[in-house]
Design brief:
Blueprint lengths: L1 E4 L2 E4 L41 E4 L3 E6 L2 E2 L19 E8 L13 E4 L11 H5 L4 E2 L2 E7 L7 H5 L12
Antiparallel strand pairs: 1-2, 3-4, 4-9, 5-8, 6-7, 6-9
The protein binds fe (ii) ion (FE2).
Fe (ii) ion binds next to loops.
């Protein structure tokens, strides 16, 4: 296998072919990485979203929200801050666990926060988060650097009231 790094070619020889495929055109990276092996950085105060970043491409990033300790400063508020991610559309797939910052979100739920739309924890989430030590949540986020367009299939399953879920 020829590997180019910093403009220098390196050669590795494997005992068997490293890719379990018949053919490969060079556009797909045939590697698997389990979300269960991802360890996010934690801290005394709330860490910014890049600590969850798992993959990066030229037009999107993938973040993994995994079981972890919450912020451990004695006065920390573990719920995340409100934001409007003006450079990205943000898709979240809630896989498992309890999603502390959301009131009506369950396993299997997918949310889309278009770039520039302010959003954050639901009413009561800040108060609920105080004193919590850890989370068992599992969620995947895709942040795209260009706007997403909804398909009819997505519109067919849309919860038309999601935008009102921040109202008490
Ligand atoms: Fe967000």
């Amino acid at each position: 296998m020829k590997i180019k790094k910093e403009n220098v070619m390196h050669e590795l020889t494997y005992a068997s072919h490293p890719f379990d495929v018949i053919g490969w055109d060079g556009f797909n990276f045939p590697y698997a990485f389990s979300i269960h092996d991802f360890e996010p950085i934690t801290g005394r105060v709330h860490q910014p979203p890049p600590v969850h970043q798992t993959f990066e491409a030229h037009n999107f990033v993938i973040c993994s929200f995994c079981p972890r300790l919450y912020d451990y400063h004695p006065k920390s508020i573990p719920a995340p801050y409100n934001h409007s991610n003006i450079d990205s559309d943000e898709v979240l797939y809630y896989v498992d666990g309890d999603f502390m910052s959301r009131n009506h979100v369950e396993k299997g739920y997918i949310s889309l926060h278009p770039g520039g739309i302010p959003h954050g924890p639901h009413p009561g989430a800040y108060e609920r988060s105080i004193g919590q030590k850890e989370t068992a949540e599992l969620a995947v986020m895709v942040d795209t650097f260009r706007p997403l367009k909804l398909t009819q299939a997505a519109l067919d399953i849309a919860d038309g009231n999601y935008h009102t879920s921040w109202l008490e």
